[in-house]
Amino acid sequence: MNKEGKPVQRIRFDATDEEAGREPLECARDRRRRRSSVGSLSIHSTGGARNVDPGTALPITYRTLSIEVDEEKQKKQSEIKRAKEKGAVDLAVLEWHTLEVEELCRRLSVDTNQGLSDDQIKRRVAEYGRNKMSPPPSSLFGKIIGYFYGGFGSILLSAGILVFISWKPLGDPPAEANLALACVLIAVWLIQAAFNAWQDWSTSRVMASIGTMLPDQCIVIRNGSQASASALDLVPGDIIVIKQGNKLPADVRFVEVSSDAMFDRAILTGESEPVHATVQSTEENYLETNNIGMQGTHCISGSCLGVCVATGDSTVFGRIAKLTSDPKTGMTPLQKEILRFVLIISTFITVVVIVIIVLWAAWLRKDHPNWISVPLLIVSCVSAAVAFIPEGLPIALTTSLTIVANIMRKNKILCKSLKTVETLGSVSVICSDKTGTLTKNSMVVTNLYAGGEEHTPEAARDLMAALRSGNSIAAISNKREDVIDRVRMLAGLCNSGEFDASTMHLPIAERKINGDATDQALLRLSESLGSVAELRRDYKKVFEIAFNSKNKFMVRLMSPANQNATGSIATLMIKGAPDILLDRCETILDNKGEFVPLTSGQLARIERIKDDWSCQGKRVILLAQKPTIAPFSANAEKEVLVAARQGLTFVGMVGIVDPPRDEIPGVVRILRGASIRIFMVTGDFKLTAQAIAEECGILSNSALVDEISALSHDGKIGTTKQSIVLSGPELITLNEAQWDQLCQYQEIVFARTTPEQKLRIVKEFQSRENIVGMTGDGVNDAPSLKAADIGIAMGSGSDIAIEAADMVLLDSFAAIVEAVQYGRLVYDNLKKTIVYLLPAGSFSELWPVITNVAFGIPQALSSFLMIIICCLTDCAAAITLAYEKPEADLMLRPPRNPRKDRLVNTHLIFHAYFFVGLIQCFLSFTMAFWYLETQGIPFTAMWLKYGVYDPHYDADYINEKFKTASSIYFVTLVVMQLFNLLATRTRRLSIFQQPPLFNKETQNWLLFPAMGFAIVVVFIFCYIPGLQNTIGTRQVPVEHWFLPAAFGFGLLMLDEARKYCIRRWPQGLLANIAW
């Protein structure tokens, strides 16, 4: 920006002029030239409207996120393309791109230097409305259909219709029990639809609240000064300052652009190639011209000044959003696993039902025609099928994900899709950027070296004050020639930061600065030594080379403001990494303010100070200058780069501290305990990175840190790999065998890495079966964020990084612990739900049907009571398991491998069916037949009788007593399931270690209302006389309540013993087959 606050032409760093790297030497004084990421010295976003999912064509503040959204970028782009074709006629009338800048400003009544006034803004807000798009129309009819027929709704409805048919017209005579069963199925169907509607409404509220958590600020010029404003408050005519990393909050016409200004329009066009921004129109088509920036597109380099020409529904995105369909929805990985499981058991029960029908048709119908009638066959098959399929599972999954969404919101974590949480629960490696992620990104200059002496900022300020007063004997030369004043000038002028006009009245440390954290630190230093505004009035900017991923320095050509138009004298000012710039310095500004040759002794001292500061975790920035002339050739960029390669004058060096976040050591310790390796990947100097890594706890013992020499070329793996520090240039030299060794290290610091190398690191770990999480906040982090299994951006990061990430941490990096924990918890609780539902809900309900058909025994559990267990008692309890808190050892287990560790595996099936299920089924049969034995009906009286009993047994008496036995079977199952619910709460911990009450960290009081609900259901259907006669139930003797309770307690204690053995012998047989 020049002194009027406008961007000027910039020099783009040409790929052919990149700094050539050379192999690092062991000598500490070797000055390496390396490619580097912008991570250490990057211009990053200071705001701007941020769209989490651009495919929805909605800006950040108005997006709605769904737990079911599965990004399908290519499909969405094709939709947008079709919509653009439909809307081409509407866009053809737009002419903002064809107008001259003066005419554009005249029509919008705005001055690019002054911006809009407060009165103009108020009038335009009233005229155009806020910068938001109308929400997409919701298909209420489609939603209602989904509520009723989604999940297992269609199965319940079909079952209800079939049972109705069994009642009438097939019933002869019609059985009231069938009518009651059909009514229950329809009632459950309606209840499920109501629950789905409530769940959708609840989820929408949670996700909508998450959707408004990101800031949506952008930089505008209003009332003659730069200020930060909400993107919602933009109006046509606003002057918007656009910087690298920003996403455009509205449609703008560029009026000033830097030479390297480029925009990514992939979301609109699908083209991966960025587009150069221009001031003049390049195409007649509004969508294709390069002087229009459209909402939702990214500025990937350079800077621009634009006039807002459209907001809200009037933007190109706004017009397209009205024409595109809603985003496609898909299933999360866990939903797919559940569907796979349900399909497996549905196939199994279908086969069982088919076998029953074949047996009936081929054998029973002929040999025992009075045993099972057609209506009874339909009811039995339908009941078995409905009971065997766990209807509570989809509800439990949705509830779990909604609970997690609430927790994420409370912890200020933005998940674009909750499948992100599922993935995070499996993460085994986290690669973290340093600046702004592990550190506070609040940089402060703590050391200054100039004129052969070290100073603190306070001492330098005092010296400047003495020089200005003229009372110091040190003031032996003109102030402008003083070395401290020269540092102040370079720090203030070779700086892309800008003080926010609204905070200029505050102390320097509290003022808001729009710019990179490094620029902020240097700008505060310069302001503390003298007025930056005065400096920028005295000089004007001619050219600029900004920081990017291909250099580690910034160049500005400045000339005196009073120099006439024909003058060509300029000063090349440069700041950057010492290991790049020190080789280019030939002279030094000494303590007398004179330019003298740089001696080897001075060079050695500078190297020593640089290394000392780096070892203290400080970022070191070198400041240099060179007299030159303004570029005059056609290739001005190359001309200035050539000038900056040699003949520089060393002016000074500053050390900047960016302290680690307070919570980072604890976070690293917890993640390590969870068997998650956390590495640092940064563009900073190697010694600086290592020092910060030690402070953060990423390197636990600096004495045991390996170097590249520890990685053998032949691939022989020696002792356990602990710690290693590598630089970007060293990574280039690694072969496959060395990568194999490197990926086994527990603690790694990657320094001086480029975006390409960050991407390579992610892919190398992924190729070795690691689930990789990547955290970052800069433009240069975007490729690796996108490539990682889960990309995690900081809320303070650039728009591009936030766009590329799957999850955004809005407050603290410590929130990642909660995210990992609850990602694991979703998986854990779903396993618990399945283990709880299967024993009674399928296994113990199937065998009464099988024994009835195959062995001629009356059905020990009536079809009606099967449905009651499945859809009421078990379903309610299963939902409460979704509210279980994390087990104490959850973050002590290794992460699961989603490629191998399935939600439902043979261990879980064995436990549910052949441990709990077998015990429950056997004891329920035992209780029912023991009761019959006490009533004078031995088991042999019914075995293989098919309803034809011996003459001394009364059939009506047997049928009456069997109704009581069926109720006893029902009560036994329900009571034992209450204890199974308590046992299933934990996978390895004792109930005493994870108490369900009186401990805030572990309690789940909802279990007990669910238990009470189950008991109430039993009393309703077994103890109300009117219902007894209708559905064929009877009162249960009191002893048949207490004995199942004793059995249930025994089951709980047996499971406690199993868990004790698992904890006591973690490598034993029980541990190996544990679910």
Range of strand content: 5-15%
Radius of gyration: 36 Å
Spatial strand order of the main sheet:
10-29-28-27-11-23-26-25-24
Number of strands: 29
**Overall shape:** elongated
Number of helices: 36
Question: What would the average pLDDT be, to the nearest integer?
Answer: 82
CATH class of the largest domain: Mainly Alpha
* CATH architectural grouping of the largest domain: Up-down Bundle
- Give me the CATH fold name of the largest domain: Calcium-transporting ATPase, transmembrane domain
Q: Tell me the helix content.
A: 40-55%
Number of spatially distinct domains: 5
- CATH superfamily of the largest domain, called what? Calcium-transporting ATPase, transmembrane domain
Multimeric state: single chain
Category from helices, strands and their pairing: alpha/beta
GO cellular component, one term: plasma membrane
Subcellular location: Cell membrane
Transmembrane segments: 140-167, 179-198, 338-363, 375-408, 834-857, 863-883, 904-932, 967-984, 1005-1026, 1038-1054
Protein name: Calcium ATPase
Notes on the structure:
- This protein is α/β, with parallel strands linked by helices.
- It folds into five domains: 100-135 and 216-324, Calcium-transporting ATPase, cytoplasmic transduction domain A, CATH 2.70.150.10; 143-213; 335-408 and 819-1073, Calcium-transporting ATPase, transmembrane domain; 414-438 and 661-811, Rossmann fold (3-Layer(aba) Sandwich), CATH 3.40.50.1000; 444-468 and 479-657, Calcium-transporting ATPase, cytoplasmic domain N, CATH 3.40.1110.
- Strands 10-29-28-27-11-23-26-25-24 form a nine-stranded mixed beta sheet, sandwiched between helices. Strands 12, 13, 16, 17, 18, 19, 20, 21 and 22 form a nine-stranded mixed beta sheet that branches. The protein has a six-stranded antiparallel beta sheet with strand order 2-1-3-9-4-7, with helices on one face.
- Strand 1 (217-222) and strand 2 form a beta hairpin.
- It is elongated, with a radius of gyration of 36 Å.
- Mean pLDDT is 82; it is low at 1-73, 324-329 and 472-481.
